[in-house]
């Protein structure tokens, strides 16, 4: 996890460029803030000042505090498939300039104005771009003047509309799906919804219901805006109709990891002593014999390390008793130390065979995939999450497809990636050869398994600041972080500068993870803050100023924690606060 945080920091601290942009094509109407207003920029505390300035009589001043970078952002209309130069003159301590999903640059502490410059290229369907400038936490004031976005203008009369924003599924039945999306930029006369082999569906507003579908079937749709000039770029969304046989997970599940193969400071806890309030118990961990063998092994903690550990016979009997109560017991593979790299088809086959053998031997309900560190990564040029080419990703997808097909509808599949491997893919994607090649590497796995996936509980802890759909950085430890990170999974998001949109998941597939106690991991969240996040996510209330892009999710699956052992060590704080809240939803 620490390696992921350091890698994310390295991506953020990209090297400074100093090329001078051409001035003739500046897309900004008030580049020097001479109007005296911050608008149309959106700033976290920014203001226009008369000194110090680089030219003219005005400049923008921002302040980076202990919990804020003083970020200012502006959305500009652009043309798809075009390259832009972004530059600004800045002064102050640690000033950053960039485009969301594109290039970024920074400078240290210039005593006088210095020019920053970077570039970005729009995706094939991209019609707007967000540019930003900010300082760094606790570094104080910074100033910005003479901002330039140099490139072909977008929008305006005589042009087709932009792409609809955040297409998502708002409702499903066994024979229909209802889609919603945000309005496209530019002049819009209507929208067209398409799927292969079916008639187009016309809509005048930002939503449509498509009928005549088969039960428990996945469909891919595109939505495009149109006007008198023609049709704009399409945005994609995937939906599955209702009517599927469920895996038997609780509607509002309390999910936890149980240290069964090792000991740590929280102490060993027998499976029989796990309270019935826990709906899913993930056995931590199954690990490979070598990182690339694919041969997963699982065993109980040695008695010398874990006094009071059960015998294998007692442990299997305890699993049977949990299942008789309606609980699910899964094998979790990986963890912080379990490096699993399926680099070959032989490793893939060994993974399928060995995991299947463990599930059969212990009579388990399914599999939790908790791959961290360097288990997943992209080879250079692997930039389409819909069609990955890197062996460790392709082989993992194939292995999980085989296991879910073998065990059928009752098999439970869950995943517990860090934010670095999922939400950070909105800003940086490792397959584009920009920055760390692991960023966003869970996205192709989640997308390929979205029909088989029962619950995705991203680890909202041990994380650096992550940019949300509001263009702001969110920090772990409070309701805001859980709201923003979970909303990304429901609404879907643009994948960095790839020009591709990652469709959101069904709300019943989504939970979020957090530490059970202060000793369990960075990002511990007070129970009241967790409940505020759940209020917002499930009903749209108590959001603290955040606007849900994916809408309310009353069917949100629940909460995950690391770990049941730590919760027991701290007197069951997590369970006793959150079980009653989930039951009341």
From TrEMBL:
Residues 163-248 form the Fibronectin type-III domain. The keyword Signal applies. Gene3D superfamilies: Galactose-binding domain-like, Glycosidases, Immunoglobulins. Keywords: Carbohydrate metabolism, Glycosidase, Hydrolase, Polysaccharide degradation, Signal. It comes from the Bacteria. Pfam families: CBM_4_9 (PF02018), fn3 (PF00041), Glyco_hydro_18 (PF00704). Residues 252-585 form the GH18 domain. It is an enzyme of class 3 (hydrolase). Its EC number is 3.2.1.14. Residues 1-24 form the signal peptide. The keyword Hydrolase applies. Belongs to the glycosyl hydrolase 18 family. Chitinase class II subfamily. This is chitinase.
């Amino acid at each position: 996890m620490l390696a992921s945080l350091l890698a994310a920091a390295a991506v953020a601290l990209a090297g400074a460029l100093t090329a001078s942009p051409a001035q003739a094509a500046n897309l900004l109407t008030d580049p020097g803030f001479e109007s005296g207003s911050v608008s149309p920029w959106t700033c976290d505390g920014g203001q226009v000042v008369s000194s110090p300035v680089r030219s003219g009589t005005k400049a923008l001043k921002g302040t980076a505090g202990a919990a804020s970078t003083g970020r200012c952002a502006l959305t500009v209309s652009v043309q798809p498939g075009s390259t832009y130069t972004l530059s600004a003159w800045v002064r102050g301590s640690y000033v950053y300039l960039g485009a969301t999903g594109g290039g970024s640059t920074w400078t240290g502490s210039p005593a006088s104005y210095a020019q920053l410059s970077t570039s970005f290229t729009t995706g094939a369907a991209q019609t707007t771009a967000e540019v930003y400038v900010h300082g760094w936490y606790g570094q104080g004031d910074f100033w910005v003047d003479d901002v330039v976005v140099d490139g072909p203008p977008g929008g305006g009369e005589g042009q087709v509309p932009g792409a609809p924003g955040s297409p998502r599924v708002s409702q499903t039945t066994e024979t229909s799906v209802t889609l919603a999306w945000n309005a496209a930029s530019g002049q819009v006369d209507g929208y067209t919804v398409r799927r292969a082999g079916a008639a187009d569906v016309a809509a005048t507003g930002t939503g449509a219901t498509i009928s005549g579908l088969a039960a428990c079937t996945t469909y891919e749709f595109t939505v495009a805006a149109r006007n008198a000039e023609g049709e704009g770029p399409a945005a994609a969304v995937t939906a599955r109709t209702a009517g599927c046989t469920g895996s038997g997970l609780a509607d509002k599940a309390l999910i936890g990891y149980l240290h069964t193969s090792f000991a740590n400071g929280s102490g060993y806890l027998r499976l029989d002593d796990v309270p019935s309030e826990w709906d899913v118990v993930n056995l931590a961990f199954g690990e490979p014999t070598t990182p690339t063998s694919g041969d997963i092994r699982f065993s109980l903690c040695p008695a010398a390390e874990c006094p009071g550990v059960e015998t294998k016979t007692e442990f299997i009997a305890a699993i049977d008793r949990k299942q008789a109560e309606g609980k699910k017991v899964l094998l979790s593979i990986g963890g912080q130390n379990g490096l699993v790299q399926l680099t070959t088809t032989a490793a893939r086959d060994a993974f399928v065979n060995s995991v299947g053998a463990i599930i059969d031997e212990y009579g388990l309900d399914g599999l939790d995939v908790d791959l961290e560190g360097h288990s997943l990564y992209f080879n250079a040029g692997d930039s389409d999450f819909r069609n990955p080419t890197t062996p460790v990703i392709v082989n993992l997808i194939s292995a999980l497809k085989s296991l879910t097909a073998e065990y059928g509808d009752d098999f439970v599949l869950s995943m517990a990636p860090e934010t670095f491997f999922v939400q950070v893919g909105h800003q940086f994607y490792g397959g584009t050869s920009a920055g760390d090649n692991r960023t966003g590497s869970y996205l192709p796995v989640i997308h390929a398994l979205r029909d088989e996936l029962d619950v995705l509980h991203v680890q909202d802890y041990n994380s650096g600041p992550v940019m949300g759909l509001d263009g702001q950085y969110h920090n772990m430890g409070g309701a805001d972080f859980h709201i923003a990170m979970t909303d990304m999974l429901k609404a879907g998001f643009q994948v960095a500068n790839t020009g591709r949109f990652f469709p959101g998941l069904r709300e019943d597939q989504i939970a979020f993870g957090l530490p059970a106690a202060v000793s369990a991991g960075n990002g511990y969240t007070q129970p009241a803050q967790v409940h505020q996040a759940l209020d917002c996510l499930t009903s749209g209330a108590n959001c603290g100023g955040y606007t849900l892009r994916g809408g309310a999710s009353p069917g949100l699956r629940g909460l995950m924690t690391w770990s049941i052992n730590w919760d027991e060590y701290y007197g069951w704080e997590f369970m006793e606060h959150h079980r009653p809240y989930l039951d009341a939803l």
